[in-house]
What does this fold into?
Amino acid sequence: MPVPVEGIYGMLAEFDTPSDLVRAAQAAYKDGWRRMDCYTPYPVEEAAEAIGFHKNKVPLVTLVGGLMGLCAMFSLETWISTLAYPLNVGGRPTYSWPAFVVPAYEWTILFAGLSACFGMLALNGLPSPYHPLFNAPNFRSGATDDKFFLCLEALDPKFDLTETRAYLESFGPTSVVEVEY
Amino acid sequence: MATKDIKPQDPMIDPLTGEFRVLAPGQTFKSVTAKISDIVLTPKTSLGFLGFLAIAGSVAMLVLVAVTWLFLKGVGIWAITQPVAWGFAIINFVWWIGIGHAGTLISAILLLFKQGWRNSINRFAEAMTIFAVVCAGMFPLIHVGRPWLSYWLFPLPLTMNVWPQFRSPLLWDVFAVSTYATISIVFWYMGMIPDFGTLRDRAKSKFAQYVYGLLSVGWRGSVRHWMRYETASLLLAGLATPLVLSVHTVISFDFAVAVLPGWHTTIFPPYFVAGAIYSGFAMVLTLAIPLRKFYHLEELVTERHIDNMGKVMLGTGGIVAYGYGMEVFMAWYSASHWEFFMMWNRMFGPMGWSYGVLIFCNIAFPLTTLWVRKLRTNIAFMFILSLIVNTGMWFERFVIVVTSLYRDFLPSSWGTYRATKWDYATFVGTLGLFTTLFLLFVRFLPMIPMNEIKMMLPAAKITPKTETAAGAGD
It folds into this structure.
């Protein structure tokens, strides 16, 4: 593990357009940076591609959640109707599975949907009310409004206070600031 | 597309395609943020808004009064009796839940079809869904007469050792509607997380910063987060789409599974779903048209939106018309005595007026006028039309419930139905409740998704190399 620079989270460059951000991110990734992230006010797929983030686990979590819901409800219905409280309705079989499909289907969607949302939050490490980036003076006024940020993090072995700043400035950003913990 | 009748200088027309623009030109990231978040963050609340809220709130109080009286006296204060054992309660339930469906349709199905125009209207349409489900859910709950025992519907291990009956469509309803409500809320909230981040960062007051900060769960717009967020949105949309169809299908089973003439029909699931979307879009129009006027959102909710919603209504209205036609056809073609009498009685019996209202409001008026583009883009006309369709769809449920029930197989068991003042009070009260909730939503939550609008702006396009990229650090 590389030793992080004391008290510094990373170096943050601010751009005015998404295109500038994407180009800078692509260049940095090509130059061997790995501990980095982009911050944008709306999803910029190209920026995620640029920093090497292609796949995520949300679909898997959703699938597992959905299957759990399906099994849970179908077994519950079967158990209730055949063992716990068998009811003879007009001589119909107690295990009348076609009737069980509807609630089982609803629970598949319920569990899958909840897994998609909460799985997304968990994989993103949210909720996390504190993050060092919020210390950057320009971050909060821009990252959720109209500015695009590239952060090279101090944990990256290539990180160096002066060199990284110069490197980021070579992309022509609006500003480059240090982000403190 | 017909473009001849449109002035070429109109800024709302794209000169390249001749189509209506989705967004007015000249929007920037900053202007979008400012326009939408300022509605929420302004500390001043206009007197007009407070007036509306006061009126809506007072009407909502009717529910409280009506329900209190109901709990004291029992469901006998309603007009329900034999043979019409389901009166306003199920009519309103089905009507309200149908209203909700357009919200999910806009947010889910149109997202899957990559319809960019949905972005301006999806947030408040989703809000509409949730508030409509709130109003809908109330009716079956209070209709059971002892709502404090409604937990019996859930499969909980209770001391009585009695479990719910999973072969009943009424129980399926419990699962369908509760799932629908939950997923709608989750979808709605998740969609707002990034916008809460924006509000947190723009809020001036400590309290607003704290509340929106809490709601935004620390969203900071990392592209990794965004990608997972986008995947989750798409998945939720993919899950909500069959959910919407299933919910109204299950509700139609409540009727279709019965053997009663007028209910016992296989056309119900698709016809109910189409009707739900039809009335839902009508309600979106009813809400969107005044909203864009009062909050000056004409640049974001444009004529194109109104026009497109008109087209969707034309399509779904057509399906509804087919459903009505098929009901009549099957009454004749099935050669069933009872079925035929039901239809005859529905059209020409003592309650035939309700069928007339239904045909006029849902078929005759909208389906002849919505073909005309000039009318579809006429805002005042569309507002009136949306009110008419909403009324018509309420009457559709009235016709299905009352005119099927009040004269069934045996003349000895015939009766009639006349709603009492408590029926009306509860119904009108839910209209007030819905409006109150919606007004509060408009005041405190971002009613248009900022991040989704920003994605549609020309500035969001990633251009290949430009002069800025080549320039070294200045």
